[in-house]
What does this fold into?
Amino acid sequence: MTKKTPLGSVVLCLAIAVVFVSCGKADWDDTVITNNSTFPVTFKFNHTGEFTVNPTDSKSFETVAHQHLEYLKESKRVSFTYTATNDGATGSFEDLDSIDVEVENPLTVKVILSEKGGWMDDLTVPAGSTLGTISGKIYHLESPVKPEFEVIDENDNPASADWSIDNTNAKPKMVITISQSPWSGQ
It folds into this structure.
């Protein structure tokens, strides 16, 4: 005697087989992270070690479910864009917007100009420097974020930094003038 299997049982078995085959797919393409910024970038995903990627280089690593960026050391210089699909993931680092900085130091001593928030690299400004002699960049200067400058002269005395934005050219620039601090004791 032949026993017939109900059609519903066959459909159910096929559906379960498809689900198991689909759920078992963990053969994603590698994640590729590209550094399009002008800075070396150090980062770590939740399932990787720490990587440093130089400008224009890329780093590939195994894609896993629920991966995410754990940290980025150059967060005040670059932005990160990330896209994940069923086939893998890609990401890229880009420079944040910046404003050119020019510094004038009429003092008779060299100074070091720092931005307390880390939005600018420290600048060493020789004594008697005029605008255009020393320049740099400040990143991510958006209202209401205002830079907080610290100036120390070569004798470890504080000095002051007054700044303004010069909008007379096609691209704005920040102009910083160093002056003697009332607390410098000079």
Q: What stands out?
A: The first helix runs from residue 7 to 23. The radius of gyration is 28 Å. Confidence is low (pLDDT under 50) at residues 7-25. The longest strand covers residues 129-139.
